Task: structure prediction
Amino acid sequence: MTGATTLALFMSHGAIYLLLKTEGRMFAKLTFLYKRGMIFFMVTFGITSLYTLLYIPHLSDTFKGHPSYFIVPLLAFLSIANVPRLANKRKYKTAFIFSSMTISFLLIMVAVELYPTLLLSTVDPAFNITVYNAASSEKSLSIMLTITAIGGPMVAAYTIFVYRTFKGKVKLDETSY
Result:
């Protein structure tokens, strides 16, 4: 169920991005596909949420123990509700931002629910993988920090270059395939 929900979320997110980049017949077809994808996401998200609350109730213990954490599911719900509203108004750039926020809030929600456990064992809780027993050594973390400090700006510069090169809508003509 989680896989189907994730697939539906990314289908809708990708469709919104393509609505920003296309026009004409392709735009019309994507509008239809986006609406179907968003309905698919909302249905699967509702089923997955309901199933989780009914059959895996311990995942919501963190939220019950810290009522201030309820802001995360609330923000996730509001961002989910805002995406189709904005898309219906043809504000695709803002809908894309809210779709990105939906992905972020859902990931934050899962992290809050599971912390400190990363992977639950079905055999014995002693075999759970936690943040503490999965952590790298200080030496490997310092090496990765160095690599990130060098590579991060390079990736950011390349991303900015690519986005500026391909900004705007795609124009289909006789040389397109």
Observations:
- The CA atoms of residues 135 and 175 lie 52 Å apart.
- The chain has a mean pLDDT of 92.
- DSSP finds six helices and two strands in the chain.
- The chain has two domains: 2-130, 136-171.
